[in-house]
Amino acid sequence: LDPFAGQPALARAASAERRRLLLNNASPATLLGVLASAAPPASGVVDHAFSRIADAPRRGQTLAHHLSLLYETICPECAQSIVAERFVWDRNVGEPVEKRYRCPHCGSQGDAPADMVDVAQVSSLEVRGAAYWGLLSRLVKPGDPLTAQARSLQDLYPSRALLVLSELLTAAEQRLSAGEEQRAARAMILHVMVAGLPAASLRAGQDAARVQLARRFVENNLWLAFEHAYRTLRSRSPGEPARRDRPLPLAADLARLRGPEGEGRVLPLALTTPDLAEQLSPGSVALILTEPPPFD
Fold first, then answer.
1. Farthest CA pair distance, the chain
2. Ramachandran region of residue 187, left (φ > 0), alpha (ψ -120 to 50) or beta?
3. Which one of 103, 181, 217, 237 is most buried, counting C-beta atoms within 10 A?
4. Residue 179: left (phi > 0), alpha (psi -120 to 50), or beta?
5. What is the pTM of this model?
6. Average pLDDT, stretch 258-274?
7. For position 37, what pLDDT does the model report?
8. Which long-range contacts (CB under 8 A, 24 or more apart) does 240-249 make?
9. Is-contact 66 58, C-beta < 8 A?
10. pLDDT attached to residue 205
11. Spatial separation of the C-alpha atoms in residues 91 and 192, rounded to whole Å
């Protein structure tokens, strides 16, 4: 059992050793990213998928350049235009109040107060524009009973993050062929989805629990997150297509995982820790290997 699955190594090792493995992460996007990284496409496929998305034309420039400029800021030391690594928002104020930067011109780096350029950058974006509704249409269809939950999830993302996700998904859909290229793109974009989701907490109300952003939350540069996802996935990819790992054999449910056909299979679950504990009977887990998430 890995109750906080965040890395693919255990999934690969358990499958190779014919062990039954239960992978759990409360974040479905993180869980899917782990599964994708456990059996990654060949490095050439990952290279092609990344370059096709990065080189997609967007407003007279490449998509890579266009998305980088969404995080453009001013170096507080030399006043040159640079790209911020992340912003810290104050939910009560409704705008970024701090930024983390690394200046290639003067070499300075660190955290600094957000300036008027940073506030103007996000103020120019539509709060619920085409990117918001386009992503929602990918999650749910009209009349779907899960529409309210899908909108609650999307509302956690800053408008800039939704725009980046929409652009990446559109480029992948339009410029990549089905199969391994799409699988590589999905693995990288899933990483971006996780990096773009600010820390949130669950608030219990009279009718139902709801998710709420912390008063101060971090907005990461999602183009940098996409580049990081590419480097990470490529480092785990076999060099030749013929040597590519097969997709992990999955179990449909706990009963099948425990049965004779469950040997060497993986069961992915996206449950909170209390819900996971309710699913497991006493003595059903022989070994727990995990890396708990940081507590801060």
1. 66
2. alpha
3. 237
4. left
5. 0.79
6. 89
7. 75
8. 240/42, 241/42, 241/44, 241/45, 243/42, 244/39, 244/40, 244/41, 244/42, 245/12, 245/38, 245/39, 245/40, 246/39, 247/39, 248/11, 248/12, 248/15, 248/35, 248/38, 248/39, 249/15
9. yes
10. 44
11. 22
Taking CB atoms within 8 Å and a gap of at least 24, the contacts of 63-68 are 63/167, 63/168, 63/171, 64/223, 66/167, 67/164, 67/167, 67/168, 67/222, 67/223, 67/226, 68/223
Contact predicate 125/28, CB 8 Å:
no
Residue 36 token pair: 């994708």
The string of DSSP codes covering the chain is: -BTT---SHHHHHHHHTT--EEEE-S-HHHHHHHHHHHSPPPHHHHHHHHHHHHT-EETTEEHHHHHHHTTEEE-TTT--EEE-SEEEEETTTTEEEEEEEE-TTT--EEEEE--HHHHHHHHTS-TTSHHHHHHHHHH--TT-TTHHHHHHHHTTS-HHHHHHHHHHHHHHHHHS-TTHHHHHHHHHHHHHHHHHS--EEEEE-SS-EEEEE-SEEEEE-HHHHHHHHHHHHHHTS-SSGGGPPPPPPB-SSHHHHHSGGGTT-EEEE---HHHHHHHSPTT--S-----PPP--
Tokens of 176: 């990549």
Cα distance from N-terminal residue to C-terminal residue, the chain = 24
**What is the CB neighbour count within 10 angstroms for residue 98?**
17
Residue 123 is encoded by which pair of tokens? 């103020």
* Amino acid residing at 33: G
Looking at per-residue pLDDT, the higher value among 144 and 286 belongs to 286
Residue entry with tokens 């906080």: 4
Give, in order, the Cα–Cα distances in Å from 130 to each of 58, 68, 157, 226.
16, 20, 14, 21
Give me the mean pLDDT over the 200-227 stretch. Answer: 72
